[in-house]
Amino acid sequence: MKFNRKVLVWWLSSAVIPFLGMGQQAQKKLWQQYQYKAEYFSRQDSTQLAIFFYQKAYQQVSRADPNRSGYFCMNICSLYYGQGRLQEAAHFGHKGIAHLLELATLPDTTHFKLYSFLGAIYQSRSNTDSSYFYFQRADQTLEQNPSVETRLPTYVVYHYINLGRMLLTFQDYQQSMNYFQKARTLSITYNLKDNIPTISSSIAECFDLMEEHSKALLYRRESLRLHLKQDIDKAAYLSGLAWTFYKEKDFAQSLTTCKKTIVLLAHLSPQSSSTYFTILFKQYWFMGACHFEEKRYEEAEKNIDKSIEVYEKNLLSKRDNLAHVYLLKARILIQKGKDILALKYLESVRQMVVLKKVTNTLSPFDIKNPKLAVESVNLISFLCYNNFKKSNKAVDLKKAIDAFEVAIKVHALVGKTIDDKQVRLLLAEQNFSVYPEAIKMGVEACKNYPSLFGIHRLFRWIEAFQSSHLKETVKVNTLKRHTLPPHILDEESRIERQLMSFRGKQSVDMDAYINLQIRWHRFKQQLFKKYPSYYQSIYQQLAFSLSSLQQQLDNETAYVSYIWQNDCLYTFVVTHDKADVLCQPIAPQLEVCLRNLQEQIVNNPGLGRYYGSASAIYCYQQFIEPIKKVVLNKKILVINRDPRFQFLPFEILETGQKQYDYLLSKYSISYAYSAQWYWQHPSRVYQERSKPLLDAPKGTTQSALVIAPFLDEKLLAKKWLPISSTEEVEKIDGEKILTTKATKTRLLKADLNKKIIHIAAHTFIDSADFFNSYIQLYPDHDSHLYFDDICHLPLQNTSLVVLGTCEANRGTMLRSEGILSLARAFAYAGAQAVVTTTWEANNDAVSFLSIRLHHYLSKGYAIDEALQKAKLDILSSREHKKYRHPYYWANYIVLGNREAVYAEQFFGGISWKVGIAVFGFVLAAALLWKGKTRKGVWEPPFLKKR
User: Fold this and answer.
1) Parallel, antiparallel, or unpaired: how do β-strands 833-837 and 910-911 relate?
2) Bridge partners (DSSP) listed for residue 819
3) Quick one: 663 exposed, middle or buried, by C-beta within 10 A (0-12, 13-18, 19+)?
4) Bridge partners, residue 367, by sequence
C-alpha cells in the first residue's frame, strides 16, 4: 500500500502534537506545583523548604519565561535575606534583574521588590555605594508607577524605612525624615500599625542627629507606648530612649534606662541573635558615655571595655558602632594622659570610616560615616599638636601639620552630597571645632618654622574654614545655570516654588509636603545621573591661593582678616606685595569696649549725645594701630571680621588725634565673608567670560530695579508705616515696582537681570528659626519673601542689592559662616555685593544715604567709595545735623565686592578722572608759564598783560 507523502505528514502530526501539548501541560503543572508548595512552606515559616521548592520552580522556567524567572528569583532573594544569608540573597537578586531586563516592558512590582531587596542587602553588608544605587532604582520605579504603593503597601513601607536609614549614613537628615514620615503615613493609611513604633524610633533618631532632642523624646515615648510586648523590639526602643536622654544631658535618666534595658535583655533568650548583642553592646557604650560626661573616667572605661568585649565575643558586624566606642575609649585615654594609646584607637576609627589613606584622592563617597570621620581626624590633629608642644621637635610638627591637612580635607568633603541648607549649616558649625587649634598651630609654625609651614599654607587653611557653605552654594548655583538645559532649570524652579509655598502657612498638608520633598529628592538624583558633567563639577575645588589674592589687589587696597581665638587676636593682612600675620594678646578691656560700642550704636539715641568715642579709640588701637604701617598709604580696606565683633562697622573707629576723627574719612571700607568669595566670586567669573549684561549708561531703564511697597503717600494702615520716600524712589534711575504692584507674585515674575536691585520694605526677623525670617512686600494672599525665596532668586548677573530695610543683616551667628541674615540670602542667590543695615534703621537717614549712594554709583564710583561719600555727606550736611550720631549712618555697610557697578562717566570721550588729571596738568602748565614770564621768558600773546 502506497501512502501519499502529504497524508503521512498529516497523520504523524495529528498523532504527535497532542502528546507534545500534554508534555507542555505537564511541565506547566510541575512548576505550578513547586510554586504552591513553596508558598505553603513560606506561610508555615519553613524557610528552607520554601527556598528548595522555589528553586525547583525556577529551574523549570529559567530558560523559557524571564518574567516568572524574575519573580521566583525575587522570592528566593527575599527568603535568603530573611535568614541573614546575604551572599545567596544578592546572587538571586542579580539573577532576577538579569531575567527582567530581557523583557520589553518591566513588571513594576517584581522590578521594585528586587531593587529594594538588593538595596537592603548591600545596606546590611555596609556597602553604601551599591545600596544607595539599588534603592534609587527602586525609588524611580515608584515614581514612574505610583500604583505600586497601593498594591504593595507593606513592601513600600519597608523600602521607605530602609532608604531613610541609608540616607542617615550620608547625614542627609531631612530627606531621611521625609522617607520615615512617608512610611508612617502609609502605615496609618493601610492599617499597618505594627510598623509605627519602628518608624517613630527612626524619626526620633533623625531629630537627635539634628540636635532637636525634645522632639526626639516625643517619638521615643510613642514607640514605647505603642509597643506593649516585652521583647527584643521593646529593648531596642528603650535603648533609643537612653540615647536621647544622654543627648539631652540627662545622664541619670539615661543610666536608669540603660539598666532597665539590660534587665529586660536578661529575661530574653539571646538565641545567638546579633540584634540582642548589639543592644547589649550599646547599653554599656551609653553608660560609658554618661560616666565620661560626669568625669567618672574609671567607671566610663569599665563600661566601654565591657561593650568592646560583647562586640568581639559575638562578632557583631556594624563597625560604625565599634568606631563610636573606640572614639570614646580614646577620649577617656586622653583624660588619663595616655595619648599614644589614644592615637592608636583614633587611627582605628579613621580606618573604619575613611576608606582611603591618600587624602588627595578622597571623594565624599569615601567617607563612610562623616560625623565619626570629623571627630576622629579632629582628635588626631589635637593629639599630634599637643605632642609637638611637649617635644618642640620639627618631626612632630610635621606630623601635626599632616594631621590637620587630613582634617581640613575631610571637613571640606563632609556634607557635599547633602542638598538641605539647614543640615549643611549645622554640619558647618559642627566642623568648626578644629579651626581654633589649627589656626593657632598654623600661626605658631608660620612664625617659628617657615620652611615647614609658610604664610601661603596658613592662608589656605584660613580660607578653608571661612564661609565654606556659602562659597559652595554660590558655586553650584552658578555652575547649574551654565551647564544644565533651560527645561531642567524650569522644572527645578517649579518644584522649589511649590516647596516654598508651604512656608509660613499655619496649617499644612504634611502628606502633600512630604510627597513633594521626596519628588524633589528623586529629581536631584536623576539630575546627577543624566548630567554627569554637572555632577562632577560640584566636587571640584576652586583653587584660590595667596598669590591669586595678591594679583587682585592694587596699590591702594589691603585685605585684613581678624581671628579671635581664646586669648589671642590674629590679624592677617595682605597687600599686593606683602602678607603677614600678627598675634597679640587680648586684654579684658577690649570686650568691655566692644560691648559699650554695641550699646551706643545699636540703641536709638533719639537726640542724645554719642558716648562711644573712648571705646572707638581703644578698638582702633587694637585693630588698626598694629597694621598701621602696612595700610598707611592705602585708601581701601576689605575687612573680614571675627564673629565676636561682626556687629562692628569699622568706619566708626577713631584715631583720637581730634574729635570724631573717624576711620570713615581715611578709608573706604567693605566687608567680606572670605577672600575667595570676595575676589573669585563664581558669578563674577562667568560674567567676565560671557558678559551677559553690558554696562548700562545712566538713565536707562535696564540698569536698576526699585521695589518699594510702602511709600509715604500710600499709607495702608497703622501697621504698615512708610519705609521710603517718593523723593528717594524718583532719584533712582531704572524700572520701578511700587505700592500695590510691589507684591511677591510680581517680584518673582519680574526681570531680575539688572545691575542694581533696590528693595525698600519692612522685615521680620525670627530669632528662633531664621529660615522663617522674611521681607514684607505689599500685602496680598502671599506677601512674605522668605529666606529661601530670596536664595532662589536668579541674581547671578546682579552686581549690587541695596536693602533699605531694618536689620537686614541681623540674624543667627554661625562661627564658621558668619551672620545668617536676609542680606546673606541675597549672597546665596548670587549677588556679588549687598548694601544692608545691621540694626534698626531711621527712615530719613537711610533715605538720604540711599539717594546719595545711587548718585555716586551713577557717576562711576566703586560701591564702597560711593557709600563712604554718602556718609561723609550726611556728616557735613547742616540740614541733617541731627543724624551725625553713628547710630544713624554707621548702620549702612557693604558686604561683598566693591567694584563700580557702572563705567565712569565720560566727557568728550574722556573719563571724568582722566579729565580732572588733564585739567590739573593744564593748570599747572599755565601757572608754570606765568612764573617764567616774570623772568623775561617768552609767553604767548594771549597770556600777556595788556
Assistant:
1) unpaired
2) 813
3) buried
4) 354
Q: Which helix (H) or strand (E) holds 301?
A: helix 297-313
Is residue 645 within 8 Å of residue 595, measured between CB atoms?
no
Is residue 237 predicted with pLDDT exceeding 90?
yes
Is 685 or 494 the better-scoring residue by pLDDT?
A: 494
- Give the cell for residue 910: 574722556
Half-sphere exposure of 247 (CA within 13 A, CB side): 21
Confidence of residue 688 (pLDDT cuts 50, 70, 90): low
Class of domain 546-605+613-677: alpha beta
Pick the CATH number of 703-903 from 3.30.479.30, 1.10.3720.10, 3.40.50.1460, 3.40.50.1970: 3.40.50.1460
Tell me the DSSP string of 485-527: -HHHHHHHHHHHHHHHTTTT-SS--HHHHHHHHHHHHHHHHHH
Nearest Cα to Cα of residue 95 among 67, 73, 112: 73
Q: Is residue 430 pLDDT above 60, yes or no? A: yes
What global pTM score does this model have? 0.80
Q: What are phi and psi of 704, to 5 degrees?
A: -150, 160
Grid cell of 301 as nine digits: 572605661
**Higher pLDDT, residue 91 or 925:** 91
CA 731, CA 708: separation in Å to the nearest integer? 13
The pLDDT of residue 698 is above 50: no
Q: What is the pLDDT of residues 270-301, one digit of tens each?
A: 766 788 999 999 999 999 999 999 999 999 99
How confident is the model over 196-230, as pLDDT tens digits? 999 999 999 999 988 899 999 999 999 999 999 99
From CA 581, how far away is CA 193, in angstroms rounded?
A: 63
Q: Across-strand partners of 581?
A: 572
Does 530 or 807 have the greater pLDDT score?
530
Confidence category of residue 925, pLDDT binned at 50, 70, 90: low
Homologous superfamily of domain range 229-317: Tetratricopeptide repeat domain (1.25.40.10)
User: 878-883, long-range: CB within 8 Å, 24+ apart, which pairs?
Assistant: 880/844, 880/845, 880/848, 882/607, 883/842, 883/844, 883/845, 883/848
Contacts of 938 (CB under 8 A, 6+ apart): none
Fold: same for 5-151 and 229-317: yes
Name the band, by pLDDT with cuts 50, 70 and 90, for residue 421.
low
How far apart are the C-alpha atoms of 787 and 829, rounded to whole Å? 10
User: Which of 695, 689, 798, 697 lies closest to 753 in space, CA to CA?
Assistant: 798
CA dihedral 422, 424, 427, 431 (to 10 degrees): -130
Distance separating the N- and C-terminal Cα atoms of the chain:
155
Q: Domain limits of the chain?
A: 5-151, 152-221, 229-317, 336-465, 486-530, 546-605+613-677, 703-903, 910-943
Q: How far is CA 417 from the centre of its chain?
A: 10
Query: Can you tell me the mean pLDDT for 428-448?
Result: 82
At residue 782, the pLDDT reads 77
**Residue in the structure block whose three cell numbers are 542617615:** 168
Domain 5-151: CATH class, spelled out: mainly alpha
Residue 303 makes CB contacts below 8 A (sequence gap 6+) with: 284, 285, 287, 288, 291
Residue 362's pLDDT band, with cuts at 50, 70 and 90, is: confident
Phi-psi label, residue 392: left if phi above 0, alpha if psi -120 to 50, beta otherwise: left
Q: CB–CB of 311/321 below 8 Å?
A: yes
CATH class of 152-221: mainly alpha
| Stretch 556-583: mean pLDDT | 92
How far is the C-alpha of 128 from the C-alpha of 72, rounded, in Å?
26
CA dihedral 594, 599, 601, 602 (to 10 degrees): 120
Length of the chain: 946
- Determine the pLDDT at residue 412: 79
Alpha carbon dihedral 391, 396, 400, 402, in 10-degree steps, equals 180
